[in-house]
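Hey L., structure's done. Input below.
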Amino acid sequence: MGAEADIRWGIVGPGRIAAKVMPDFAYVPNAVCVAAASRSLDRAQAFVDEFGLERAYGSYGELIAAPDIDALYIATPHPQHHKLAVAALQAGKAVLVEKTFTATVAGAEDIIATARACDVFAMEAMWTRFQPAIIAARSLIEDGAIGEVRQVQADLGVDRPYDESDRLFDPAQGGGALLDLGVYVVSFAQYFLGEPDRIEVTGSLAPTGVDWEIGLLLGYADGRAATLLGSLRHHTPGAARIFGTKGWIEVPPRFHHPDRIVLHRKGADPEQIIRPPDGVGYSHELAEATQCLRAGRTESSVMPLSDTLAVQRILNEASERLGVFHREDDSIEV
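Output:
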């Protein structure tokens, strides 16, 4: 794809998250969103009218087949990601897939294998990694500001009233704390510590059988560790800390889209580093995907597919330890 070309985007699943993402396209050079698809044409048309897009589709397959669309942002419930992403990749469409990437490890592996076989770009939409404040933290760590990273703490909880009809409590839609909130704390820990050697998990289940609250301990052979909390049952601050041998970095609430960090060096006063995002903060992951496509890259170096798979393994192992077994929804029509 020529460097001069704009990347034309389509939205698969014009729901709540997609509506939050849409305004951030204005901050992304060479990216233009032109279409949306839903299983309901009326719903797709309402989204198109709200955001001034060119056209609406009443099926996902029509958008996937559209010849003038370069990339798709997939924002349907987790279990639908697998079939939609594979179909898009096979049609030559790049995909930015909402987190959690899939409902299962096998689903994630299949998307990754398809992307590589088709030589088409795929990335998990983990916006946290692209926040300027998190990039600043990573740079400080790489420069040795806090020495060797040894421990990570992170929490993310919301007080979600129990409703068995709510997607978050519906097993068929990939409900539960781990896939919706745990993905943030696990991905954060994996980014700074890598893939763990062992996992310990505790938690509780909602009446529908999905995980309601979770506590994770990720252990590493050399003694490093991450302690992670997530809940749909009660609020938590949504903070994170990265501890090293020469200091630590605080990521204030809400850590998954922060506008600042605080650097604590041994023997020095705390240093606040302010790095607000452009727009709400989704702009940075959109920019990464757009830039990769314009440069002819099929994978992001910041959010590589190997990291996505590592996180998916942790999420599914933890879920299954609690007795929650997720399934892909491959009945969806494409």
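The chain is about 30% helix and 25% strand. The mean pLDDT is 97.

-- N.
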